[in-house]
Amino acid sequence: MTTIPGLIQQDAIEVVPDAVKSLTSHNACNAVQLGLLYSSLCEPAFAAKAFKFLLLTTKDNLNLAVTEISRLLGEYWAKLLDTPRRQLLWLFHELVKSNTINAEHVLHHLLRRMTGGDLSPLNLWLVETVLDILSQHRHNWLDKKAVVPVVVYSYLRIIADHAAPVSHGLQGALERLRKREIDFVLPLLRDNFTDCLSIGRDLLRLLQVS
Q1: What cellular component terms from Gene Ontology apply here (predicted)?
Q2: How far apart are CA 111 and CA 106, in angstroms?
């Protein structure tokens, strides 16, 4: 984030809302929004305050922030360090929690990053963290009918992968995660079965192997 002379970073963030009021340039407002977004990604200690001011200063319902987060997930996920990765998931949590318009675009990118057959710590962490966020704030996205089938399909695919034999050291943790995934998906499928028919024949196939 750009430093304001005479101010440490925390104080600089504090003056952002008042500073934005005086901006008339669209590009300048966008630059402030991106500065707050990247502060959230790179400085966890300032993330909550930066996101709060992101909400206060947005003039496009966070569309710029959602677009940039989606771009990072789509193009740079594999190259990111651990801290920005964790913060991207934290930002997704905050977007869902605040019922942000178009937060489902970020969700779609996260679901695509949940790689089938990948039992690496990173992939399992991603699967479980997204599961935590969706479970905690399910009422903020369940009414988006186009989202439910995508979530159901993605987790049915993961459940099938997690049923495969693995080394003894991973078996217990994977079984616990798989149980959580099943407990999450079954009510979604039961309560939204008509919507989930849009998945097509893949739905039957995944139900058979899950």
Answers
A1: cytoplasm
A2: 9
Specify the pTM. Answer: 0.86
The answer to whether 148 touches 196, Cβ cutoff 8 Å, is yes
Spacing of C-alpha 175 from chain mean position: 24
Q: Which of 9, 118, 98 is nearest to 51 (CA)?
A: 98
Q: Which long-range contacts (CB under 8 A, 24 or more apart) does 70-76 make?
A: 70/105, 70/106, 70/109, 72/41, 73/106, 73/109, 73/110, 73/113, 74/109, 74/112
Q: How far is CA 174 from the centre of its chain?
A: 22
Sign of the torsion angle spanned by Cα atoms 134, 136, 137, 139: positive
Q: What is the pLDDT of residues 22-51, one digit of tens each?
A: 555 678 888 989 999 999 999 999 999 999
Tokens 């995508």 correspond to 150
